Amino acid sequence: MSDPVAGSTGTAASGGAPLLGAADLKVTFAGRRGSPEARAVDGVHLDIAPGEIVALVGESGCGKTTLARALLGLEKPTTGQVSFDGAPLAYDSRALKAYRNRVQLVLQDPSGSLNPRHTVYEAVAEGLRIHGYTGDERAKVAEALSRAGLRPPERFFLRYPHELSGGQRQRVVIAGALVLDPELIVADEPVASLDASVRGEILALLLSLREELGLSALVVTHDLGLAWNIADRVAVMYLGRVVETGTVEEVLTSPQHPYTQALLSVLPEAQGEPVVLTGEPPDPTRIPPGCRFHARCQVLASGEAERTGVAQSCRTKELPVLSAAGTAQVACHWAAAKAGASG
Protein backbone atom coordinates (compact mmCIF):
# COMPACT_ATOMS: atom_id res chain seq x y z
CA MET A 1 0.00 0.00 0.00
CA SER A 2 1.26 3.47 -0.80
CA ASP A 3 1.56 6.17 1.83
CA PRO A 4 -1.73 7.27 3.29
CA VAL A 5 -2.82 10.89 3.18
CA ALA A 6 -1.12 13.00 5.81
CA GLY A 7 -2.59 15.52 8.20
CA SER A 8 -5.77 13.91 9.51
CA THR A 9 -8.35 16.51 10.43
CA GLY A 10 -10.56 14.20 12.50
CA THR A 11 -12.81 15.53 15.23
CA ALA A 12 -10.76 14.04 18.00
CA ALA A 13 -7.55 15.50 16.63
CA SER A 14 -8.89 18.95 15.88
CA GLY A 15 -11.20 19.27 18.87
CA GLY A 16 -13.83 20.88 16.66
CA ALA A 17 -17.50 20.03 16.35
CA PRO A 18 -18.41 17.48 13.66
CA LEU A 19 -19.89 18.69 10.39
CA LEU A 20 -22.03 15.57 9.98
CA GLY A 21 -22.94 13.21 12.78
CA ALA A 22 -25.02 10.10 13.46
CA ALA A 23 -26.11 9.25 16.99
CA ASP A 24 -27.35 5.73 17.79
CA LEU A 25 -28.71 5.44 14.26
CA LYS A 26 -30.98 2.50 13.43
CA VAL A 27 -32.73 1.73 10.14
CA THR A 28 -35.02 -1.31 9.98
CA PHE A 29 -37.15 -2.60 7.13
CA ALA A 30 -40.32 -4.63 7.60
CA GLY A 31 -40.10 -8.25 6.49
CA ARG A 32 -42.29 -9.63 3.72
CA ARG A 33 -45.20 -11.93 4.57
CA GLY A 34 -44.32 -12.37 8.21
CA SER A 35 -40.57 -12.77 7.75
CA PRO A 36 -38.31 -11.05 10.33
CA GLU A 37 -37.52 -7.36 9.97
CA ALA A 38 -34.16 -6.42 8.51
CA ARG A 39 -31.97 -4.43 10.89
CA ALA A 40 -29.86 -2.86 8.15
CA VAL A 41 -28.30 -0.27 10.45
CA ASP A 42 -28.46 -1.32 14.08
CA GLY A 43 -26.89 1.30 16.29
CA VAL A 44 -24.22 3.48 14.71
CA HIS A 45 -22.39 6.52 16.02
CA LEU A 46 -20.32 8.27 13.34
CA ASP A 47 -18.90 11.79 13.00
CA ILE A 48 -17.24 13.53 10.07
CA ALA A 49 -15.27 16.69 10.83
CA PRO A 50 -14.91 19.68 8.49
CA GLY A 51 -12.32 18.87 5.84
CA GLU A 52 -12.12 15.21 6.86
CA ILE A 53 -12.37 12.14 4.63
CA VAL A 54 -13.85 9.08 6.32
CA ALA A 55 -13.93 5.68 4.60
CA LEU A 56 -16.87 3.41 5.45
CA VAL A 57 -15.70 -0.12 4.65
CA GLY A 58 -17.37 -3.52 4.53
CA GLU A 59 -18.57 -6.28 2.24
CA SER A 60 -21.93 -6.27 0.48
CA GLY A 61 -24.87 -6.59 2.85
CA CYS A 62 -23.13 -5.04 5.87
CA GLY A 63 -25.34 -1.92 5.88
CA LYS A 64 -22.92 0.72 4.64
CA THR A 65 -25.08 1.93 1.72
CA THR A 66 -28.18 2.13 3.95
CA LEU A 67 -26.16 4.13 6.48
CA ALA A 68 -24.99 6.47 3.72
CA ARG A 69 -28.58 6.95 2.52
CA ALA A 70 -29.68 7.76 6.06
CA LEU A 71 -26.89 10.32 6.40
CA LEU A 72 -28.03 11.90 3.11
CA GLY A 73 -31.64 12.13 4.30
CA LEU A 74 -32.74 9.65 1.65
CA GLU A 75 -33.73 7.11 4.31
CA LYS A 76 -35.41 8.25 7.52
CA PRO A 77 -33.93 6.49 10.56
CA THR A 78 -36.18 4.21 12.59
CA THR A 79 -34.53 5.64 15.70
CA GLY A 80 -31.51 7.82 16.38
CA GLN A 81 -30.55 11.13 14.88
CA VAL A 82 -28.58 12.64 12.03
CA SER A 83 -27.21 16.12 12.63
CA PHE A 84 -25.47 18.56 10.30
CA ASP A 85 -23.49 21.60 11.37
CA GLY A 86 -24.78 21.15 14.90
CA ALA A 87 -28.50 21.00 14.04
CA PRO A 88 -30.73 17.89 13.86
CA LEU A 89 -31.78 16.95 10.34
CA ALA A 90 -35.45 17.73 9.62
CA TYR A 91 -37.38 15.63 7.12
CA ASP A 92 -39.88 18.04 5.59
CA SER A 93 -39.32 18.68 1.89
CA ARG A 94 -38.06 22.26 2.33
CA ALA A 95 -35.47 21.29 4.94
CA LEU A 96 -34.25 18.32 2.90
CA LYS A 97 -33.89 20.47 -0.22
CA ALA A 98 -31.75 22.95 1.71
CA TYR A 99 -29.72 20.09 3.21
CA ARG A 100 -29.02 18.53 -0.19
CA ASN A 101 -27.66 21.86 -1.33
CA ARG A 102 -24.90 21.35 1.25
CA VAL A 103 -24.45 17.56 1.06
CA GLN A 104 -24.20 15.85 -2.32
CA LEU A 105 -24.08 12.22 -3.49
CA VAL A 106 -21.63 10.80 -6.03
CA LEU A 107 -22.67 7.35 -7.27
CA GLN A 108 -20.42 4.50 -8.42
CA ASP A 109 -21.84 4.11 -11.93
CA PRO A 110 -21.55 7.31 -13.96
CA SER A 111 -23.37 5.70 -16.88
CA GLY A 112 -26.41 5.08 -14.69
CA SER A 113 -26.18 8.54 -13.09
CA LEU A 114 -26.21 10.46 -16.38
CA ASN A 115 -29.19 10.78 -18.70
CA PRO A 116 -27.96 9.67 -22.15
CA ARG A 117 -30.21 12.29 -23.78
CA HIS A 118 -28.73 15.18 -21.80
CA THR A 119 -25.54 17.00 -22.72
CA VAL A 120 -22.78 17.46 -20.17
CA TYR A 121 -23.92 21.07 -19.70
CA GLU A 122 -27.50 20.01 -18.94
CA ALA A 123 -26.33 17.26 -16.57
CA VAL A 124 -24.22 19.67 -14.50
CA ALA A 125 -26.75 22.53 -14.64
CA GLU A 126 -29.62 20.33 -13.43
CA GLY A 127 -28.82 20.84 -9.76
CA LEU A 128 -28.69 24.61 -10.18
CA ARG A 129 -32.11 24.60 -11.80
CA ILE A 130 -33.64 22.36 -9.14
CA HIS A 131 -32.38 24.67 -6.41
CA GLY A 132 -33.42 27.88 -8.19
CA TYR A 133 -29.96 29.35 -8.80
CA THR A 134 -30.29 32.89 -10.15
CA GLY A 135 -26.66 33.74 -10.97
CA ASP A 136 -24.62 33.14 -14.12
CA GLU A 137 -25.46 29.49 -14.86
CA ARG A 138 -22.95 29.12 -17.67
CA ALA A 139 -20.07 30.42 -15.55
CA LYS A 140 -21.08 28.17 -12.65
CA VAL A 141 -21.20 25.06 -14.86
CA ALA A 142 -17.84 25.94 -16.39
CA GLU A 143 -16.30 26.40 -12.94
CA ALA A 144 -17.61 23.02 -11.73
CA LEU A 145 -16.34 21.17 -14.81
CA SER A 146 -12.95 22.85 -14.48
CA ARG A 147 -12.71 21.89 -10.80
CA ALA A 148 -13.55 18.31 -11.76
CA GLY A 149 -10.63 18.29 -14.19
CA LEU A 150 -12.50 18.73 -17.49
CA ARG A 151 -10.63 21.59 -19.13
CA PRO A 152 -11.31 23.70 -21.07
CA PRO A 153 -14.86 23.17 -19.79
CA GLU A 154 -16.57 24.69 -22.82
CA ARG A 155 -15.20 21.87 -24.94
CA PHE A 156 -17.43 19.44 -23.00
CA PHE A 157 -20.66 21.48 -22.87
CA LEU A 158 -22.35 19.89 -25.88
CA ARG A 159 -20.99 16.38 -25.55
CA TYR A 160 -23.20 13.44 -24.57
CA PRO A 161 -22.25 10.73 -22.06
CA HIS A 162 -21.58 8.12 -24.77
CA GLU A 163 -18.93 10.43 -26.25
CA LEU A 164 -16.91 10.40 -23.03
CA SER A 165 -14.57 7.90 -21.41
CA GLY A 166 -15.51 6.26 -18.10
CA GLY A 167 -13.20 8.58 -16.20
CA GLN A 168 -14.63 11.65 -17.93
CA ARG A 169 -18.18 10.54 -17.11
CA GLN A 170 -17.25 10.18 -13.44
CA ARG A 171 -15.77 13.68 -13.53
CA VAL A 172 -19.07 14.98 -14.95
CA VAL A 173 -20.93 13.33 -12.05
CA ILE A 174 -18.49 14.95 -9.60
CA ALA A 175 -18.96 18.31 -11.35
CA GLY A 176 -22.72 17.91 -10.95
CA ALA A 177 -22.17 17.58 -7.20
CA LEU A 178 -19.65 20.44 -7.00
CA VAL A 179 -21.81 22.95 -8.88
CA LEU A 180 -23.89 23.56 -5.73
CA ASP A 181 -20.77 24.27 -3.62
CA PRO A 182 -21.49 21.51 -1.08
CA GLU A 183 -19.61 21.22 2.17
CA LEU A 184 -19.64 17.42 2.12
CA ILE A 185 -19.95 14.71 -0.50
CA VAL A 186 -20.94 11.08 -0.01
CA ALA A 187 -19.15 8.99 -2.62
CA ASP A 188 -20.57 5.47 -2.96
CA GLU A 189 -17.87 3.23 -4.50
CA PRO A 190 -16.60 6.21 -6.56
CA VAL A 191 -14.04 4.24 -8.58
CA ALA A 192 -15.49 0.70 -8.55
CA SER A 193 -16.60 0.81 -12.19
CA LEU A 194 -13.42 2.44 -13.53
CA ASP A 195 -10.28 0.96 -15.04
CA ALA A 196 -7.31 0.73 -12.69
CA SER A 197 -5.45 3.40 -14.70
CA VAL A 198 -8.24 5.93 -14.08
CA ARG A 199 -8.92 5.16 -10.41
CA GLY A 200 -5.82 6.98 -9.19
CA GLU A 201 -6.81 10.10 -11.11
CA ILE A 202 -10.26 10.22 -9.51
CA LEU A 203 -8.85 9.62 -6.02
CA ALA A 204 -6.28 12.37 -6.58
CA LEU A 205 -9.12 14.65 -7.68
CA LEU A 206 -11.09 13.99 -4.48
CA LEU A 207 -8.01 14.75 -2.38
CA SER A 208 -7.33 17.97 -4.30
CA LEU A 209 -10.94 19.09 -3.77
CA ARG A 210 -10.45 18.63 -0.03
CA GLU A 211 -7.31 20.76 -0.17
CA GLU A 212 -8.74 23.49 -2.43
CA LEU A 213 -12.31 23.71 -1.13
CA GLY A 214 -12.09 22.28 2.40
CA LEU A 215 -14.55 19.63 1.25
CA SER A 216 -15.45 16.79 3.63
CA ALA A 217 -16.27 13.34 2.30
CA LEU A 218 -17.68 9.99 3.30
CA VAL A 219 -16.32 7.37 0.92
CA VAL A 220 -18.31 4.12 0.92
CA THR A 221 -16.24 1.21 -0.31
CA HIS A 222 -15.49 -2.49 0.03
CA ASP A 223 -11.85 -1.79 -0.87
CA LEU A 224 -9.48 -1.22 2.04
CA GLY A 225 -6.73 -0.35 -0.41
CA LEU A 226 -8.79 2.61 -1.59
CA ALA A 227 -9.38 3.63 2.02
CA TRP A 228 -5.64 3.59 2.65
CA ASN A 229 -4.97 5.97 -0.23
CA ILE A 230 -7.67 8.54 0.48
CA ALA A 231 -9.02 8.47 4.03
CA ASP A 232 -8.08 10.15 7.29
CA ARG A 233 -10.22 7.74 9.32
CA VAL A 234 -11.78 4.35 8.66
CA ALA A 235 -14.99 2.82 10.01
CA VAL A 236 -15.36 -0.91 9.34
CA MET A 237 -18.97 -2.15 9.25
CA TYR A 238 -20.34 -5.62 9.76
CA LEU A 239 -24.02 -6.57 9.99
CA GLY A 240 -25.35 -3.11 10.74
CA ARG A 241 -22.68 -1.92 13.16
CA VAL A 242 -19.25 -0.34 13.11
CA VAL A 243 -16.93 -3.02 14.50
CA GLU A 244 -13.63 -1.14 14.27
CA THR A 245 -12.73 2.50 13.80
CA GLY A 246 -9.70 4.76 14.06
CA THR A 247 -7.23 6.62 11.90
CA VAL A 248 -6.29 4.96 8.63
CA GLU A 249 -2.84 4.16 10.02
CA GLU A 250 -4.23 2.61 13.22
CA VAL A 251 -6.82 0.42 11.53
CA LEU A 252 -4.96 -0.65 8.43
CA THR A 253 -1.47 -1.16 9.83
CA SER A 254 -2.58 -2.75 13.12
CA PRO A 255 -6.10 -4.15 12.67
CA GLN A 256 -7.60 -5.53 15.89
CA HIS A 257 -10.88 -7.07 14.71
CA PRO A 258 -10.67 -10.47 12.97
CA TYR A 259 -13.07 -9.19 10.29
CA THR A 260 -10.78 -6.25 9.47
CA GLN A 261 -7.81 -8.62 9.44
CA ALA A 262 -9.65 -10.88 6.97
CA LEU A 263 -10.51 -7.96 4.67
CA LEU A 264 -6.90 -6.79 4.69
CA SER A 265 -5.48 -10.27 4.11
CA VAL A 266 -6.84 -10.47 0.56
CA LEU A 267 -5.13 -7.28 -0.66
CA PRO A 268 -2.38 -8.02 -3.23
CA GLU A 269 0.32 -6.47 -1.02
CA ALA A 270 -0.74 -8.33 2.15
CA GLN A 271 1.77 -10.57 3.90
CA GLY A 272 0.89 -14.19 4.68
CA GLU A 273 -2.01 -16.33 3.57
CA PRO A 274 -5.37 -14.72 2.79
CA VAL A 275 -8.15 -15.45 5.29
CA VAL A 276 -11.05 -17.19 3.58
CA LEU A 277 -14.23 -16.44 5.50
CA THR A 278 -16.59 -19.39 5.76
CA GLY A 279 -20.26 -19.44 6.70
CA GLU A 280 -23.12 -17.27 5.50
CA PRO A 281 -22.58 -13.64 4.43
CA PRO A 282 -24.21 -10.92 6.55
CA ASP A 283 -28.01 -11.24 6.75
CA PRO A 284 -29.72 -8.31 8.57
CA THR A 285 -32.82 -10.45 9.18
CA ARG A 286 -30.79 -13.00 11.17
CA ILE A 287 -28.48 -11.26 13.63
CA PRO A 288 -26.84 -13.89 15.84
CA PRO A 289 -26.38 -13.65 19.60
CA GLY A 290 -23.04 -12.54 20.98
CA CYS A 291 -20.53 -11.11 18.53
CA ARG A 292 -22.20 -10.64 15.15
CA PHE A 293 -19.14 -12.04 13.39
CA HIS A 294 -18.64 -15.12 15.55
CA ALA A 295 -20.14 -17.66 13.11
CA ARG A 296 -17.51 -16.72 10.49
CA CYS A 297 -14.65 -15.74 12.79
CA GLN A 298 -11.30 -17.34 11.99
CA VAL A 299 -10.05 -16.66 15.54
CA LEU A 300 -12.96 -18.59 17.06
CA ALA A 301 -12.70 -21.38 14.48
CA SER A 302 -8.96 -21.83 15.11
CA GLY A 303 -9.42 -22.27 18.86
CA GLU A 304 -7.52 -19.09 19.67
CA ALA A 305 -10.59 -17.50 21.32
CA GLU A 306 -10.97 -20.64 23.46
CA ARG A 307 -7.34 -20.42 24.56
CA THR A 308 -7.85 -16.74 25.41
CA GLY A 309 -10.91 -17.63 27.49
CA VAL A 310 -13.46 -15.62 25.52
CA ALA A 311 -15.09 -18.23 23.24
CA GLN A 312 -18.29 -18.38 25.28
CA SER A 313 -18.55 -14.59 25.35
CA CYS A 314 -18.04 -14.49 21.58
CA ARG A 315 -21.05 -16.77 21.12
CA THR A 316 -23.39 -15.26 23.72
CA LYS A 317 -22.37 -11.82 25.02
CA GLU A 318 -23.36 -8.85 22.88
CA LEU A 319 -20.77 -6.13 22.40
CA PRO A 320 -21.46 -2.44 23.05
CA VAL A 321 -21.97 0.04 20.22
CA LEU A 322 -18.76 1.94 19.46
CA SER A 323 -18.84 5.67 20.16
CA ALA A 324 -18.25 8.44 17.62
CA ALA A 325 -14.94 9.45 19.23
CA GLY A 326 -12.00 9.70 16.85
CA THR A 327 -9.87 7.32 18.93
CA ALA A 328 -9.15 3.73 17.85
CA GLN A 329 -11.95 1.39 19.00
CA VAL A 330 -12.87 -2.23 18.35
CA ALA A 331 -15.94 -4.33 19.18
CA CYS A 332 -14.32 -7.71 19.81
CA HIS A 333 -14.08 -9.85 22.96
CA TRP A 334 -10.81 -11.42 21.80
CA ALA A 335 -9.18 -8.06 20.98
CA ALA A 336 -10.30 -6.67 24.34
CA ALA A 337 -8.84 -9.70 26.16
CA LYS A 338 -5.55 -9.32 24.32
CA ALA A 339 -5.40 -5.60 25.16
CA GLY A 340 -6.15 -6.34 28.81
CA ALA A 341 -3.42 -8.99 28.98
CA SER A 342 -0.81 -6.70 27.40
CA GLY A 343 -1.93 -3.73 29.53
Automatic annotation (TrEMBL):
Molecular function via GO: ATP binding
Q: Keywords for this entry?
A: ATP-binding, Nucleotide-binding, Transport
Which intervals hold domain ABC transporter? 20-264
Q: Which InterPro entries does the protein's record reference? A: AAA+_ATPase, ABC_transp_ATP-bind, ABC_transporter-like_ATP-bd, ABC_transporter-like_CS, Oligopep_ABC_C, P-loop_NTPase
Q: Which family does it belong to?
A: Belongs to the ABC transporter superfamily.
Q: Which PANTHER family match?
A: D,D-DIPEPTIDE TRANSPORT ATP-BINDING PROTEIN DDPF-RELATED, TRANSPORT ATP-BINDING PROTEIN
Read off the NCBIfam families from this record: oligo_HPY
Q: What is this protein called?
A: Oligopeptide/dipeptide ABC transporter ATP-binding protein
Question: Origin organism of this chain?
Answer: Streptomyces monticola
